[in-house]
């Protein structure tokens, strides 16, 4: 039977046919404004249309020769002219190929088609590259995906031919790609830099040719206060890399001349050329090279379309998209499609779609699948109603506010609004602390203060005087928040409010793992494109929960929801009693605490059958409780659930590596190879061996916009 | 199972393609995989292919629209540089290929100057209703570019 296992798996995919319908990208692409047919797109609040000359960035120095990289360099502007309302401009950014001759960038369009079944999303992303130059190019694009995405499929389309990429050990894939590139073959490589940051390289795109890259991934949706949330991130925000960091994420060009440093380890940070911080040639000693960021008035010509097919399984009560303008079509009470409206097509913020089903029933508590490898399941556990019957203990709340430059403007105002509400929500008997950090940390008092009206008023004044500038030494905030004696009479909740724009995520997560003690961390991701990998990781390792304050969200309301949650005790020491059945390899191995309104997600394997009733055991305020939970079960294609399980296990092993268990790297690599997944040590590669191109090429990195709401000058000057 | 085994056809060919020039190490080549189902419509197949001293670097779909999408592969077999590909199509018999058709192209990288030995094995083939059929399979190396 094993011999036909793969075929059986393929046949099982028939059940997913509807799932896949619509996942192929339409071949029609949005014309590049000014370079094809069609009109210049409109954008609410956009700047007046720029003349073509105004859109042409200057390349520093002489034109690169063949084999050198082309970097799109933003027009310089004095840092004294910050953009408080950064709105992408119209038209397309162009590179000056020859004097007076301008061509657009290689990535034209990204088409996203997602299908949501219950709380599992299958997402197909097509990146459409083209070569507008008169010579061959290699296109490189660094882009985000959800932090829990199980990237399982990679296809390169050259003309009418579709070539499936192969998962390989990363070093091997990189070598294959390099040799194919050198020999003139069209080739592509997808590497994972972080769970939420990927690099796409496409080699030997001949002049006038187009190449599509299709990526497919699966992931589970978050559940918060009755809402499921689907997120498609569109841009990687500018990261700050602390001194000494080499595995960070850099936004500057490779060195063209020796680095100059103004601070140890932070190449060029704060250094300004004659016309501002971007006048200097970029340098970086970081491993991951992001592209240049576009200035607020510039556009790359790259746009995005998103369509979501929502099959909730039960009647949907409400659908909301707080991030973008969308069209919603309801086909039945349980089925709707949501499409991004054409006027909101600039990829500079996370696409966030939420839906709530009718009543308190949520279908798909347990989703299972089987193939020749056995059974896999994903289980969403909802908090038991018993939690709402108990009163909370006094709390010690530590608010930690990121005051780095990337938070300048609306992000910090939103965060401050949330903290103000938090301070007002404290009760007699509680205590609190207020910590701010950028290049160093400061705090309101030497010790946590009692929540008296006087102290709260003092905190409000302290908060009002905080401003955003400088780098993001988050480790200082972590130390200040966790390195003081625990008050045994109060539960300590640490609330981090940050965009998470740092390149040393592992260091931060490891510090939390080491220093957490009895604290619980609640991370609040601020802004339109926060670093969700970091935010989710802080909450997961900090045994708390994550919340997000999008640019259009009400910060005070988000904080109120948090206080509503902690008004009730959590279910701690959570364990699942499988009623004697065969669940195994369940991850996370130590389930997080269950808070009111917040579900937890588990993934595991099984060999026989799973029950319709489970028992959750745990402690509420020190008392042991057993809560039987009726679960609804549904089936999904094995490819999706097995991938979700493997991805969850990889995340669990990665967390373990924070404790120094380096040997787990080999296990992660093997798991990723077995389940056809990208990981830090595996990558997809595809080569078209049937034809060879001739001549040298240039590398063109795709420039990207800064996330909406992020101040260009403040944020980029503080990233490396 | 026995019936399936009966379906298995092993084609072992030695290719003596002489090349005037010695390829550089790590050159890229392509093998077209053909299946001949005779007069029967081909709705599903599973094949395994391996070449000595070769890494598989891409899998391309076939010539008939029913199998134009690149087939899925078994990741376990891929780690042994053996590709097991499978595909199916639920279209009506009239929309499925008959006779000899290229069902996939395997892109490889090899350090050998000549691919002297490779193995192609039909593990299963079926008609639309799921009936097993016996097919012939052949791997043909494309002229190197």
Structure report:
The complex is a heterodimer of chains A (720) and B (145). Chain A has 2 domains: 2-349 and 682-718, no CATH class; 392-566, von Willebrand factor, type A domain (Rossmann fold). Chain A contains 13 helices and 42 strands. In chain A, strands 8-7-12-5-4-20-23-22 form an 8-stranded mixed β-sheet. Chain A has a 7-stranded mixed β-sheet with strand order 1-41-6-11-10-40-9. Chain B has 145 residues and is mainly beta. Chain B has a 5-stranded antiparallel β-sheet. A 4-stranded antiparallel β-sheet of chain B has the order 4-7-2-9, with no helix packed on it. The radius of gyration of chain B is 15 Å and the shape is elongated. The termini of chain B are far apart. Mean pLDDT of chain B is 84; it is low at 1-23. The chains are: A alpha+beta (720), B mainly beta (145). The A-B interface holds A 1, 3-7, 9-11, 14, 17, 155-156, 161-168, 172, 176, 179-180, 183, 185, 673-676, 685-692 and B 1, 4, 24, 26-30, 44-46, 55-61, 68-76, 78-79, 84-88, 90, 105, 107-109, 123-124, 142, 145. β8 (161-164) of chain A pairs antiparallel with β4 of chain B, so a sheet runs across the interface.
Summarize this structure briefly:
The complex is a heterodimer of chains A (720) and B (145). Chain A has 720 residues and is an alpha+beta fold.
SSE topology sketch:
The complex is a heterodimer of chains A (720) and B (145).
Chain A: H1 5-12, H2 17-20, H3 52-55, E1 69-70, E2 94-98, E3 101-104, E4 107-117, E5 120-130, E6 136-144, E7 150-158, E8 161-164, E9 166-169, H4 170-182, E10 186-194, E11 197-205, E12 210-220, E13 222-224, E14 227-232, E15 249-250, E16 261-263, E17 266-267, E18 288-289, E19 293-294, E20 303-311, E21 316-320, E22 326-332, E23 335-340, E24 351-357, E25 366-371, E26 374-381, E27 395-402, H5 410-424, E28 431-437, E29 441-443, E30 449-450, H6 453-464, H7 474-482, E31 491-498, H8 505-515, E32 520-526, H9 532-541, E33 545-549, H10 555-566, E34 571-577, E35 584-587, E36 600-606, E37 613-620, E38 623-630, E39 633-635, H11 638-657, H12 664-674, E40 682-688, E41 697-701, E42 704-705, H13 712-718
Parallel strand pairs in A: 1-41, 4-20, 6-41, 15-18, 19-42, 25-39, 27-28, 27-31, 31-32, 32-33
Antiparallel strand pairs in A: 2-3, 4-5, 5-12, 6-11, 7-8, 7-12, 9-40, 10-11, 10-40, 13-14, 14-24, 16-17, 20-23, 21-24, 22-23, 25-26, 26-36, 28-29, 28-30, 34-37, 35-36, 37-38
Chain B: H1 2-7, E1 10-14, E2 27-36, E3 44-51, E4 54-61, E5 72-73, H2 75-78, E6 82-88, E7 100-110, E8 117-126, E9 136-141
Antiparallel strand pairs in B: 1-8, 2-7, 2-9, 3-6, 3-8, 4-7, 5-6
């Amino acid at each position: 039977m094993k011999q036909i296992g793969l075929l059986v798996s393929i046949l099982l995919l028939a059940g997913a046919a509807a799932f896949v319908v619509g996942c192929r990208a339409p071949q029609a692409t949005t014309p590049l404004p000014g370079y094809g047919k069609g009109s210049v797109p409109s954008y609410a609040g956009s700047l007046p249309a720029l003349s073509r000359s105004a859109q042409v960035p200057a390349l520093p120095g002489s034109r690169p020769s063949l084999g050198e990289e082309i970097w799109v360099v933003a027009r310089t502007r004095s840092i004294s002219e910050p953009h408080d309302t950064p709105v992408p401009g119209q038209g397309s950014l162009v590179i000056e190929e020859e004097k007076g001759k301008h061509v657009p960038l290689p990535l034209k369009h990204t088409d996203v088609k997602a299908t949501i079944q219950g709380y599992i999303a299958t997402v197909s992303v097509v990146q459409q590259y083209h070569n507008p130059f008169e010579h061959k190019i290699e296109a490189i694009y660094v882009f985000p995906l959800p932090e829990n995405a199980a990237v399982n499929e990679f296809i390169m389309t050259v003309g009418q031919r579709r070539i499936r990429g192969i998962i390989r050990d990363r070093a091997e894939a990189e070598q294959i790609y390099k040799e194919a590139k050198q020999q003139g073959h069209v080739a592509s490589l997808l590497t994972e830099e972080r769970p939420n940051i990927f690099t796409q390289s496409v080699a030997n795109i001949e002049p006038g040719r187009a190449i599509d890259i299709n990526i497919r991934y699966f992931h589970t949706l978050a559940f918060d206060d009755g809402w499921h949330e689907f997120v498609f991130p569109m841009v990687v925000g500018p990261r700050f890399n602390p001194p000494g960091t080499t595995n960070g994420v850099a936004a500057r060009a490779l060195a063209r001349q020796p680095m100059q440093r103004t601070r140890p380890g932070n190449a060029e940070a704060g250094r300004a050329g004659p016309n501002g911080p971007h006048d200097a040639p970029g340098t970086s000693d970081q491993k991951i090279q992001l592209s240049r960021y576009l200035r607020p008035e510039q556009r790359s010509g790259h746009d995005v379309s998103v369509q979501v097919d929502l099959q909730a399984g039960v009647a949907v009560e409400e659908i909301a998209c707080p991030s973008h303008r969308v069209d919603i079509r309801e086909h039945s009470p349980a089925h709707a499609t949501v499409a991004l409206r054409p006027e909101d097509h600039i990829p500079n913020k996370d696409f966030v779609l939420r839906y709530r089903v009718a009543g308190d029933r949520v279908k798909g508590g347990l989703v299972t699948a089987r193939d020749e490898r056995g059974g896999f399941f994903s289980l969403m556990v909802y908090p038991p109603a018993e939690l709402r019957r108990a009163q909370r203990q006094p709390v010690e709340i530590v608010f930690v506010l990121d005051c780095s430059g990337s938070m300048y403007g609306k992000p910090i105002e939103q965060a401050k609004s949330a903290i103000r509400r938090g301070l007002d929500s404290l009760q007699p008997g509680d205590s609190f602390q207020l910590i701010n950090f950028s290049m160093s940390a400061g705090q309101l008092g030497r010790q946590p203060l009692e929540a008296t009206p006087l102290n709260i008023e003092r905190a409000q004044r302290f908060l009002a005087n905080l401003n955003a500038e400088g780098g993001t030494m988050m480790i200082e905030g972590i130390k200040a928040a966790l390195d003081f004696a625990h008050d045994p009479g109060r539960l300590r909740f640490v609330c981090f409010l940050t965009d998470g724009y740092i390149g040393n995520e592992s260091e931060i997560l490891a510090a939390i793992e080491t220093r957490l003690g009895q604290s619980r961390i609640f991370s609040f991701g601020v802004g339109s494109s926060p670093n969700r990998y970091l935010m989710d990781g802080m909450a997961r390792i900090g045994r708390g929960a994550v919340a997000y304050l999008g640019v259009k969200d009400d910060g005070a309301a988000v904080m109120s929801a948090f206080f509503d949650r902690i008004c009730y005790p959590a279910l701690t020491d959570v364990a699942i009693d499988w009623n004697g059945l065969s669940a195994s390899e369940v991850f996370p191995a130590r389930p997080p605490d269950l808070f009111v309104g917040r579900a937890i997600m588990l993934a595991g394997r099984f060999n026989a059958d799973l029950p319709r009733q489970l028992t959750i055991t745990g402690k509420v305020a020190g008392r042991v409780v057993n809560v039987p939970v009726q679960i609804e079960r549904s089936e999904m294609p094995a490819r999706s659930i097995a991938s979700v399980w493997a991805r969850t296990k990889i995340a669990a092993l990665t967390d373990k590596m924070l404790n120094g268990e380096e040997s787990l790297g080999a296990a992660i690599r093997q798991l990723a190879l077995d389940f056809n997944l990208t990981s830090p040590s595996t990558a997809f590669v595809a080569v078209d061996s049937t034809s060879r191109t001739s001549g040298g090429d240039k590398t063109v990195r795709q420039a990207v916009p800064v996330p909406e709401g992020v101040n260009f000058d403040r944020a980029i000057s503080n990233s490396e | 199972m026995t019936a399936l085994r009966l379906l298995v056809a092993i084609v072992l060919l030695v290719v003596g393609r002489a090349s005037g020039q010695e390829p550089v190490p790590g050159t890229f080549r392509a093998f077209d995989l053909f299946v001949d189902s005779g007069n029967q419509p081909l709705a599903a197949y599973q094949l395994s292919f391996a070449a000595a001293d070769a890494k598989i670097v891409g899998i391309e779909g076939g010539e008939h629209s029913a199998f134009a999408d690149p087939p899925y592969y078994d990741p376990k077999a891929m780690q042994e540089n053996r590709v097991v590909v499978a595909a199916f199509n639920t279209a009506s018999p009239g929309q499925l290929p008959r006779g000899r058709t290229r069902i996939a192209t395997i892109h490889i990288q090899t350090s050998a100057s000549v691919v002297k030995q490779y193995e192609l094995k039909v593990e299963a083939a079926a008609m639309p209703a799921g009936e097993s059929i016996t097919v012939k399979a052949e791997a043909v190396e494309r002229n190197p570019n």
